[in-house]
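Example 3.
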Amino acid sequence: MRVLPSGSTALLVELDGLDEVLGLYAALTAEPVEGVVDVVPAARTVLLVTDPAVTGLAAVEQAVRQTTPRSGRRDGGELVELPVVYDGSDLADVAAHLGVDAAEVVRRHTGTEWTVAFCGFAPGFGYLTPDGEPWHVPRRSSPRTKVPPGSVALAGEFSGVYPRESPGGWQLIGRTDVAVFDVDREPAALLRPGVRVRFTEVR
Amino acid sequence: MTLHGGHVTGRAASQGGATRSLTVLATGPLTTVQDGGRPGQGALGIGRSGACDRAAARLSNRLVGNPPDAAVLEVTLGGLVLRTGADLVVATTGARCSGAHNAPTVLRAGRELRLGLPPTGLRTYVAVRGGIAVEPVLGSRSTDLLSGLGPPALSAGDVLPVGEPTAPMPGVDLAPVPDPPGGEVTVRVLPGPRADWFPAEAAAALTTTAWEVTGESNRIGLRLAGVALERSRAGELASEGMVRGALQVPPSGQPVLFLADAPVTGGYPVIGYVEDADVDRCGQLRPGQTLRFRGAVAPR
């Protein structure tokens, strides 16, 4: 664990990888550190944002260093099922890249459980990592200016669902009718860090 | 603050019959509703947002007896015209437009509040006793221009509901705070998480040269122009969390100083952070003004 400075109100904790991030994030949300107002996981880091009126950065750093990360990132997270119509415009390209046919891409995508590692890019956009074989799919060489909401996509080692229309460079393999982000729902974001996801095919 | 009994009282704000509302007649270049923002939701990809100049927004609320993070109007470069539906107590802070400033005033029913062009500073805050009472989104009434959360920016014809006062008037006539300065502004800088991605020359250039605030700046951040800050390390950085005040260096070498609507995570190295208490002043900088950083970002 490396603790890096991030100004007068935050600390950035750098870790070896996603599993360590999920473990530390789970521990810090289960037992919050006093004066920490936000905990933001990412691919290799966890940002701790403090309220300077309540605590100091030195105390927070000490508390984080004494935190025991939760092992087994996939224990007990809520399971969300997302029905998907696999008719994305990039499905054939993804299949070609993986050297399989489209049906095999769908079989692999629905055949594993995924875990939300972290969110970013837009409110409610979760970066999903598979329990099984890792995926490696390049981004599109030119991003789309408009990706429709509900698009199910792949890029790098992650899968994701676009919460709303936005530009995007991920490979689109399908679409779901489930609103992954809805400000009038509690919780607004379906795909929160630690949530497990199972994709099912709608024919 | 001067604390001798104010001539403005809470009674003026609650006369029966009239509608506690403000009708927007003109907005100027950009007027949004802002409050304390959406803290604690970064893990969902939801940024903090809130007033760009938090100190000015809180002061405007204190002057009218509101909780410090009640919703106010953030007016960019003046131009706002409002008409009241009832007698309301208002106060403006931040960039000084015209008339009473840093002082509560009664705006009689049917009268207009008109903000001209401020001589210095960029953002004026208008607090109204009782607070702007538009519907909150995810716990806040702030407009986040990056994520699109919160109410849309104001348009002429909008009618803004005003809440009921919850506390007595503070009895303050005037808050003697300085106006945001024009010209060059100096703020304190601290090390960022990726200062070690830059050679000593870049770290030195950051704190020894002047940075021009460009016209590409907005509530998300100030795009600065100056010496190109070259990296000493190649390669990609996995996106990582950041907060307002971050000085991020994209491949162009021209840093971005993130403000209220900063993204939750970013994929370019953050060389330094502006001291949190100084970030508010950065939210008052206009295109063409210069910014200097005092301090050091060398890795500890």
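The interface with chain B takes residues 4-10, 12, 14, 25, 29, 37-47, 49, 52, 118-126, 164, 183, 187-189, 192-193 of chain A (CB under 8 Å). The mean pLDDT of chain A is 94.
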